[in-house]
Amino acid sequence: MSMFEYIVIAIITSILSALSSGFEAMFIALNVYDLSRINISNKVYNKVEFVILNKRIFVFLFLFFNTIWNVLFSISVFYIFLSLNLSEIVSGVLSVAVITPFLFIFSEVLPKAVFRKYKDRIILFLFPIFLPIAFLGRIFGPSKTEDMSFEHIISTIQKEFEEGEYSAITETIKNIANFEDLVVKNIMKPITEVGVVSVSDSLEKVLMSFDGREFVIVMDGMKPLGVLFVEDVIKMLGKNKLGPIAEIIKEPSRVVCERCEVSRFLEEEFRDRDIVFVVNDSGVLVGVVSYMEIFDVLTRVITDIKKKDRVGNTFVVDGDESISSVLELAGKNYSKIEAEYPWINEFDTVSGIILYVNGGLPKKGQKIKFSDLSFQVLEIDNFKISKVKVLV
After folding, report:
1. What pTM did the predictor assign?
2. How far apart are CA 389 and CA 319, in angstroms?
3. CATH number of the domain within which 264 lies
4. What CATH number corresponds to the domain at position 354?
5. How many domains, in total, are found in the chain?
6. Are the C-beta atoms of 273 and 229 separated by less than 8 Å?
7. What confidence tens digit (pLDDT) does each residue in 310-336 have?
8. Which of 84, 130, 326, 375 is packed most tightly, with the most Cβ within 10 A?
9. Is 302 inside any structural domain?
10. Residue 257 placed within a domain
């Protein structure tokens, strides 16, 4: 074969290697939660979900093809140098010097980064091609498909929580959820919902302050000292120790700003009794985050998204759904909407936006226009908007 033919083979195999590597990374990163953030019909959703649930066969196939293309590319490059009348040793050394960085950058790093970033669009565009392979994988592959349903995800997190596998929990949460638009303020428990006691209060008075809560915040005047867990107070009372509550105060594991991204917040391991104090820009305590807040929010998000209607370009959300998640489900860019409506960051929920735009509480069935979206109020509980249909 001529040098030109070897060059053509090298180019083709390098492209195929990059595609195989990209698809492999895409399928590894894909999960059913990704579909929940896209407004698609039930028919398309079920087909794409089937492909994702059988992704193991695609990971294996593209890993296999990637290896084959890399070998063929390496051989082609070697023969290109041989065609220059170089010795086999020199050709081998030059081949290694060229192949290693080239494959690392153009067949690994770049394609994997691109395919991971645009995995949603790629799978929606190519799922008709992958669907027959998924069926074959289901028929001839292992009898048990990896369970990636929402229910399985929730039960997995619950099991990890019960077993104290906190690092595993954090990793699971980060792998299945997209927190790009969420800040700690979106998941924290506001200070108004947390019991507050004084460090000078007696144990009996403190015990009455819990009112079904797991913990309360202990203050020294206006200074927050930490939290008090109900089980610690009960243990102290059981031992007939009536000393100051300062002895059993648990200091916060850390203090974070309410504008801290949740993705960054989860980079640090979270344990069962860890309590994080959340402060505003002025350093004033505005809320707390315990592990249960993260778990409850994640469970609610996953469960609610599973239940959302997917009929055409509409879906139903709770009134207290965060406006950032609603815009994400509608396929809108929060930053662009914020640039057009700067006041949007003053509201956390879709009901807040509706009340502001409408100038008051709307009637049941009323539609409120916002940007190029339409919010239809489905249910009102007293003065609270509880269900909203979003029309894109």
Report:
1. 0.44
2. 10
3. 3.10.580.10
4. 3.30.465.10
5. 3
6. yes
7. 445 677 888 888 888 788 778 788 888
8. 375
9. no
10. yes
